[in-house]
Amino acid sequence: MRLLVTGGCGFIGTNFILLMKERHPDWKIFNLDKLTYAGNRKNLLKLEQDENSGYTFLHGDIGDREFVTAVLHDHKIDAIVNFAAESHVDRSINDPAPFLSTNIMGTQNLMECARQAGTEKFVHVSTDEVYGSLGPDEPAFSEKNPLQPNSPYSASKAGADLMARAYFETYGFPVSITRCSNNYGPYQFPEKLIPLMFLKATAGEKLPVYGDGSNIRDWIYVDDHCTGVELTLLKGRPGQVYNFGGAAEKTNLELIREMLHLLNRDESLISYVKDRPGHDKRYAMDFKLAEKELGFTPKTSFRQGIGKTIEWYTANREWLEDVRSGAYREFMENWYGERK
Ligand code: NAD
Ligand code: TYD
Fold first, then answer.
1. Which of 113, 135, 161, 175 has the smallest set of CB atoms within 10 Å of its CB?
2. Residue from 91, 193, 206, 254 whose mutation best tests the ligand 2 pocket (most atoms within 8 A of CB)
3. Which CATH code fits 2-181+221-245+283-300?
């Protein structure tokens, strides 16, 4: 297979490419990435420097019609997995515009170029956040739930999902959509909860918990999500949405306490700060369809996954230092400055 992965220098894209290269060494993988603040080309440098790896890096924007068309043509792409996105809710609250531009317009451009090129398979990677927020006793989100996004990030992802649906219904474009809960694991940018708390706890700094810490997320180890995307690529039906989850619901406070315990740090580091506006209360996923149709199951328990993740960040501390650019620091200072 000649596979185009977009956003492969980000957190999930990096893990996906590494895993697919291990599982399918014969696949030719092309990674198209704009290298925003969240993209790190060095993640896959070993593959890039190995002439026989079957991996090629392509610097560009999914919204660039000419560039994408040339990539699909020149590299004879069979299938596309679209991870490229602006992905951080807090940044979307600060400035929604880039979210619309990449997540909606960029995805539409990518699908249009693929439709023109006759690409046979397109997996669009989306999120549980498009469903909105659950009450404590409500059943987990199924693929049939209405889309009720609450943040500019989730609204932009829902916009792309609806456009993908329209491309399937209108043009018969072979797109499947995956929606997954919160991922964690190696290479996650330290603006998201788990790597941020690792960074702060190990530096002996206060851990900013939004509101009272009772918001609930379902956590999935990144390799399990990547397996879900792989199964969708290989077996997913065009026009179908598949939910993926880790069956590991936790309040933020439970999760942070577990991390502090594993890091041997004191709970007095916890600091309650002003809540995120529009903060979704709870996410939980019903992924029975993916179990039945794709044979998906989350294999990594939260305990195993968080252990591996902490081990990775401990061994790769320089990666964390390396990705924190000036733009990162500026955003973090402003955002957390306002939450005090
Ligand atoms: P990330 O922010 O770590 O990485 C995004 C990558 O996309 C970066 O490498 C960035 O440079 C690239 N990119 C951004 N705009 C681009 C553009 N216009 N053209 C080309 N490349 C561009 O994100 P992530 O956490 O790896 O998430 C990947 C995908 O999975 C996103 O679509 C996200 O919505 C979805 N998702 C994430 C989670 C999660 O918990 N992180 C959960 C469910 C779904
Ligand atoms: P995050 O990792 O940003 O993912 P998402 O908002 O997409 O689910 O946040 C996970 C949860 O952690 C969410 O409920 C917000 C909360 N949170 C904090 O309490 N403090 C923080 O500094 C961050 C980044 C998140």
1. 135
2. 193
3. 3.40.50.720
